Amino acid sequence: MSIDFSKEVDYVARLARLKLKPEEKEIMAGQLSDILDTARKVQEIDTTGVEPTSHVIDLPTVLRDDETGSSLTLSRVLQNAPRRQQDYFKVPSITAKDNGINAGEEA
Amino acid sequence: MNKYEVVIGLEIHLELKTRSKLFCSCSTTFGQEPNTNCCPVCLGLPGSLPVFNRRAIELAVTAALALNSKVQLRSRFDRKNYFYPDLPKAYQVSQYDQPLARGGFMEIESGESERIINLERVHLEEEAGKLVHAGNSIMGSAYSLVDYNRAGIPLLEIVTAPDIKSGQEARAFLEDLRSILLYSGASDCKMEEGSLRCDANISLRPQGSEKLGTKAEVKNMNSFRSVELALNYEAERQAEVLSAGGTITQETCHWDEEAKKTIPLRSKEGSSDYRYFPEPDLLPLVLEPAFIDNIYASLPELPAVRRKRLKEKYDLSAATAAQFTVNRALGDFFETAAQDYDRYNNLANWIQGDLQYQLRESGKEADDLDAKKLIELLELLDQGEINRPVAKELLTEMVNSGKSPKKLVKEKGLGRISGDEKLRPLVDQVISENPDAVENYLKGKDKALAFLVGKIMAMTKGRADPAELNKIIKERISNK
Ligand SMILES: [Zn+2]
Questions:
Q1: Which of A107, B22, B197, B352 could form a disulfide with B154 if both were Cys (CB 3.0 to 4.6 A apart)?
Q2: Which chain B residues contact residue A105 at CB under 8 A?
Q3: DSSP state of B249
Q4: Which residues pair with B95 in a beta bridge?
């Protein structure tokens, strides 16, 4: 197949906040093409009457009781924080770039 | 404005009232020191695995059933991928094409009429952490601080159909929704603590048109009142744009509480691609029909049903029935008292008026009171043992000390003073002390009689009956 996947690579890279060099993009485009070819092959299989599967283990999920247990100590919680201030994780502002307003996609 | 029909859909998020988080045993208590309720699971550390909290599922099913939504025997959790620092894993465990419950509806009172607002779905997901913006101005801050205590608290998302027609209706819907969720025990619904949040989609279309117009999403509404104001504002704004021949751009805007207007945000380039995929760390959620049936059977009476029942059973006004529904404790107190007292409207008046006032003054709750004592008081009044001002005084005492009204009447000597034997000496005393008034009365001046009655009422601290006094005074004067 000789479809050009460079647009798709750009799009996925932007979603994943990845900065790719031109040569990396080229490699990725080729790999993406191979992956999609394989997917296409799988799609050729006749799945009429087969229930879609989202998990390889065919068991229902396990539930636990609503009981509180111990959490990590503050020093352990913040142990891997690249930056901290007082007892908080410190992160670059999302708001500065967004013209003063929090434009995040909060849940 | 009348040229257009307003079309509103709401998206509500509410935290479920569990002790521990959705996938780990960290506490959900509000207001703890930052980052102290965190563990490898809710911080998204590599190698940790989520395990479902049964109570969260029960509460989610409870809420869904209370909202007439169809709970699915099998549903699935997906990862919603996006980058935002309040999300430690860079994805949120949510539900996409196989939600916990589908459809549903709520009946709301909109003005005089009842309206059905349909629901699209009810699903379960995890709460995000909380961002604290450094410095006073959001604008100037170069960085933000993150507290992950909230991350992983079970969050229910309720999505309505675009059935709501005004800001007022949106508010009425939310108020009823809150009542239902409080009644079913699913959530605290504290908007001020963020345990209930609401976003809205709003668009306009020409009256009679079937096609939906371009919508705007409104966020950051921090009270039911601001939901109403924001949506009315946005409807007006869109109507002006359309009337002037303009077009609406699909955008997200913030409600500015200070300026009382909606402010568009920068468009989020392509970020609406969340690349959902099945959460590999969780197996599908499979519920037994019996599990759902048991929850359905234990649902409490819901607000709309209660309102109707109170109106019919006790012949209460719509406003009173509504008050006894919104203020559930007060309504429960009324119903307990009504078991022993059948002048229902009199009872309701006392509870809504003097009793509620005294509860507010003393900082007590209706649950703290013994309904039997209020009935004792009302019966003393009905039987003429005490008069109205004394009854009000006793009510204050009763609420504050919890003492029985009968006992208080005895202790304080507040019983009504009546009968010739007790009143005659007082009447004679007043007659002899006020010869002028007696003379005036004999000349036919009724005011003089009222003056004498007033004297005795003062002497008895209001415990005598003016009608009885009238009679005795007349007798005594004419017998002289
Ligand atoms: Zn945790």
A1: B22
A2: 82, 84, 268, 271-272
A3: P
A4: none
